[in-house]
Amino acid sequence: MAESVSADRGCSLVTGGGGFIGTHLVRLLLERGERVRVLELDDVPVSDDAEIIRGSVADGAMVRRAVKGVRRVYHLAAYTNLWAPDKRIFRQVNYESTCAVLHEAMRAEVEVVVHTSTEAILTGEGDPDESDRTSLLSRKKKIFGPYCQTKLMAEQAALEASREGLSVVVVSPTSPVGPGDRHITPPTRMIVDLLNRKIPAYLDCRLNLVDVRDVAEGHILAAQRGRSGERYLLGHENMMLSRLLLMLEEITGVVMPKYKIPYWLALVVGALQEFVADHVTHKAPMAPLTGVRLAGRKNNFNSDKAVHELGFKQTPIRQALIDEVIWLIKTGQVNLPAHLFRKHFESTDKK
């Protein structure tokens, strides 16, 4: 569609609407009959059924234009990589841009802002019977790297805006899996490399996985039912990486790595790779140090608050993985013949 900006109080703005979660969110909003406006970079594909504004969320004038006349703002745009050659991009995109979105949303008197944060700045440690055990890692001084630091700052800015009168609901997705990750975010990169047999060994860390389509719907539920100033964790199954490997092997027939790397060795390798990336190659390391440190946590996240207050649904992770593998094969990301995958899947599905 043309880049005309019309005043429509029924319109929703999605920043980062071409990202992994954003693509599914835009689709769901359109299926509900909403008018959707997307602020996205020039080279990122976006649904043609949305009103598209091409530009950076780091451009204050562009943000003001995008927010004008909308009813709800879903702020997903972020720099999600755990490493960058120029570290300033983390603060610029993750924090400063969030402040600009919040400022313009308050000026435009929007109904609600849903701010997408991350479980990377939270700890799930505590009593497993409590419905909401999440708290900010900063309380224990365990914030790792510029990505986590700037996402923490962004969440704090969002919660401060809620105290100043703007209706802001924070959602914190865990590790999303499922089809459609065109940008190959860190969880998808891990799965792609595993299926392409590029990882000979693994660090057996604890993960919380969630279907990306559930996360997208969770954003809409947060806008409709969420309480301003509250955080809702959007996750599902806690599992060790070794269990994920077993599931992938059962689904695809691809033999997963069996050798476990001790945490101390992963730290050393991550530190060395990041030093080389920063000072020699200027290319992303396979194991960013931030990722290794996050993997060292022993968290068990709980999304009961989102389930009970928002009606957040949780699709079985095995189905999300099946759908992701099918998509990765169809798009050529995984070198696994589709007919062999289907044959193996059909046999395992009958067990």
* SS summary, helix count: 12
Q: Ends: how far apart?
A: 48 Å
Question: Please, what is the oligomeric state?
Answer: single chain
Helix content: 40-55%
CATH architecture term of the domain at 11-182 and 209-238 and 299-317: 3-Layer(aba) Sandwich
Largest sheet: 7 strands, parallel
Given this structure, which CATH class of the domain at 11-182 and 209-238 and 299-317 is correct? Answer: Alpha Beta
Rg calculated over all Cα atoms: 20 Å
**Could you say which overall geometry the principal axes of the C-alpha atoms support?**
globular
Strand content: 15-25%
Q: List the secondary-structure elements in sequence, H or E.
A: EHEEHEHEEEHEEHEEHEEHEHHHHH
Sheet/helix structural class: alpha/beta
Taking all residues together, what is the mean pLDDT?
A: 89
Give me the count of strands.
14
Q: What is the CATH homologous superfamily assignment of the domain at 11-182 and 209-238 and 299-317?
A: NAD(P)-binding Rossmann-like Domain
Low-confidence segments: 1-9, 126-134, 137-141
Q: What is the CATH topology descriptor of the domain at 11-182 and 209-238 and 299-317?
A: Rossmann fold
- Biggest sheet strand order reads 3-2-1-4-5-8-12
Molecular structure report:
The chain is an alpha/beta fold. It has a domain at 11-182 and 209-238 and 299-317: NAD(P)-binding Rossmann-like Domain (Rossmann fold). The chain is 44% helix and 16% strand. The chain is built from twelve helices and 14 strands. The protein has helices at residues 20-31, 60-67, 88-108, 145-163, 186-195, 212-225, 241-252, 263-281, 289-295, 304-310, 317-330, 338-349; strands at 11-15, 35-40, 51-54, 72-75, 112-116, 122-123, 135-136, 168-173, 175-177, 201-202, 206-211, 231-234, 237-240, 259-260. The strands form four sheets. Strands 3-2-1-4-5-8-12 form a seven-stranded parallel sheet, sandwiched between helices. It has a three-stranded mixed sheet with strand order 9-11-13. A two-stranded antiparallel sheet has the order 6-7. Strand 1 (11-15), helix 1 and strand 2 form a beta-alpha-beta unit. Helix 3 (88-108) runs parallel beside helix 4, helix 7 crosses helix 11 and helix 8 (263-281) runs antiparallel to helix 9 (289-295). The chain is globular and about 55 Å long. The termini are far apart.
